[in-house]
Amino acid sequence: MSRLLLNKRFALSGLLLLVLVLPLITSNAYMIRILILTFIWTIAVYGLNLLAGYTGYLSLAHAGFFALGAYTLAILTVTVGLSYWLAFILTLVFTSIVGALIGMIALRTREHFFAIYTLCVGYIIYLIIYNWEGMTGGVRGFIGIPSPGSIGPLEFNSQISNYYLVLFFLVLTIVVIYRIVHSLQGRTFMAIRNSEDLAKTIGISTTKNKLIAFILSTFFAGLAGALFASFTRFIGPEISNITMTFDFLVYLLIGGIGTLSGPVIGTFIIVWISQELQFLQDYRMLVFGPILVILIIFAPRGISGFIIDWNLKRKAKKQQIESMKDMENNQEVKEG
Amino acid sequence: MLKLNNVSVNYGAFTAVKNVDIEVHPGEIVVLLGSNGAGKSTTFNSISGLNKPSSGEILYDEQNIVGFPPDQIVNLGIIQCAEGRNLFPGMTVQENLMMGGYVHRKNKIHVKERLEEVYEMFPILKEKHNESAGSLSGGQQQMVAIGRALMGDPQYMLLDEPSIGLAPLIVEQMFAKIKQINDGGTSILLAEQNANAALKIADRGYVFENGQIAVQGTAEELLTNEEVRKAYIGA
Ligand SMILES: Nc1ncnc2c1ncn2[C@@H]1O[C@H](COP(=O)(O)OP(=O)(O)OP(=O)(O)O)[C@@H](O)[C@H]1O
Ligand SMILES: [Mg+2]
Question: Name one GO molecular function term (chain A) (predicted).
Answer without folding.
Answer: branched-chain amino acid transmembrane transporter activity
